[in-house]
Specification:
This protein has two domains: 46-157 and 282-304, Rossmann fold, CATH 3.40.50.2300; 161-280 and 313-341, Response regulator (Rossmann fold, 3-Layer(aba) Sandwich). Helix content is 41%, strand content 16%. The chain has helices spanning 15-40, 60-69, 92-101, 112-121, 161-173, 190-203, 221-230, 242-246, 248-257, 267-271, 282-297, 319-324, 331-334; strands at residues 46-51, 79-84, 106-109, 127-130, 151-154, 179-184, 209-214, 235-237, 262-264, 276-280, 313-318, 339-341. It has a seven-stranded mixed beta sheet, sandwiched between helices. The longest helix is centred in the N-terminal third of the chain and has 26 residues, at 15-40. Mean pLDDT is 88; it is low at 1-12 and 32-41.
Length: 342
């Protein structure tokens, strides 16, 4: 007995007709199989993530979680190519070129240096900058509203008042300070010099003198702290810079060793043992960067996606460190903290 799907068409069509039918049937079956196979091996979107630092990225999980919330599963519906410069600016061009050769769908950057290098490497692959300073001032985009090129994302610049707010908080926490040391890295670019001048201006009405000390490399950090202590610094203001962030633990240890109350830009320093941090919530910037990736993968053009400014800020205080260096944080300062480490 013939299977039910093999029919004898001799009663209605000739031999040539049956041959044509069989060919059509096989073509249809092949098309179905080919389509299923193609779907199984369909290209999934790939993201390139270029970091100035190492694999220890404190805010990366916020980005990954937001991708999951948006329906992406890393390794299944989306792939991420991570590249780390390990604190070496000279390594950035080769890493950027590698991501371009991989023809990823979008590249994320987290520092001004990385953003500039990727812009030099490609004018076509979309770039999302997750908090790399002021992109207009630094020449990355034409304007916040209309970036105009292949880069968009999130600014980490909250304006010139941020340095003054940090100094005010430091003065409230340690009322007797009159000299504040400020180790700074010229490798951070134009913003480094700008922040030093802003600090000097904001310090005057508070009765504070700013003592800057230039740091060129990791090897200068210990020497800088010893020098600032000898210069009579009562406390420290640590500006944001990749060199500082990459050495957050060492910087916090030195400030603790010298018993110098310090205020930093991000929570990472406080979690590493620093006293206080006030600034942009970078975890929120990474989270919002994931929404940019989603929009771009769905067809949006970077030139048409406005650059967003920070909207969330945080004050973190390490009460354990305060006690160990003999400092009592006033209740009015503690009350404003978003997080207290005890």
């Amino acid at each position: 007995m013939k299977p039910f799907w093999i029919l004898d068409f001799s009663f209605s069509i000739g031999r040539s007709g049956k041959k044509a039918f069989c060919l059509a049937l096989w073509a249809a079956l092949f098309a179905v199989c080919f389509t299923a196979e193609a779907q199984q091996h369909a290209k999934i979107p790939r993201i390139g993530f270029l970091f100035m630092g190492s694999k220890n990225q404190p805010h990366l999980e916020s980005f990954r979680q937001k991708l999951r919330d948006l329906g992406y599963v890393e390794g299944k519906s989306i792939a991420i190519e991570y590249r780390y410069a390990e604190g070496k600016p000279d390594a950035l061009p080769a890493l950027a070129a590698e991501l371009v050769r991989l023809n990823v769908d979008v590249i994320l950057t987290t520092t001004l240096q990385a953003s500039r290098v990727v812009l030099q490497a490609t004018h076509t692959i979309p770039i999302v900058a997750a908090g790399s300073g002021d992109p207009v001032r630094d020449g990355l985009v034409k304007s916040l509203a209309r970036p105009g090129g292949n880069l968009t994302g999130l600014s980490s610049s909250a304006g010139p008042g941020m340095i003054g707010k940090r100094l005010e908080l430091l003065k409230e926490a340690v009322p007797g300070i009159t000299i504040v040391g400020t180790p700074w890295s010229p490798a951070a670019g134009q913003i480094a010099g700008v922040e030093i001048e802003e600090a000097k201006t904001a310090a005057k009405p508070l009765g504070i003198q700013i003592r800057p000390y230039e740091i060129q490399s990791t090897g200068d950090i210990d020497r800088a702290f010893d020098a600032l202590k000898k210069l009579g610094a009562h406390a420290l203001l640590i500006p944001g810079a990749p060199l500082m962030t990459q050495n957050s633990r060492r910087i916090a240890e030195l400030a603790f060793k010298l018993r110098l109350p310090s205020i930093y830009q991000t929570r990472q320093f406080v979690e590493d043992g620093g006293l206080m941090a006030y600034g942009v919530n970078f975890a929120d910037l990474y989270l919002r960067a994931a929404t940019y990736v989603d929009k771009i993968l769905k067809g949006a053009k970077p030139a048409d996606l406005p650059v967003e400014q920070p909207t969330k800020f945080e004050l973190i205080i390490n009460l354990k460190t305060a006690k160990q260096i003999g400092l009592i944080i006033p209740p009015n300062v503690l009350a404003r903290a978003d997080r207290v480490i005890r």
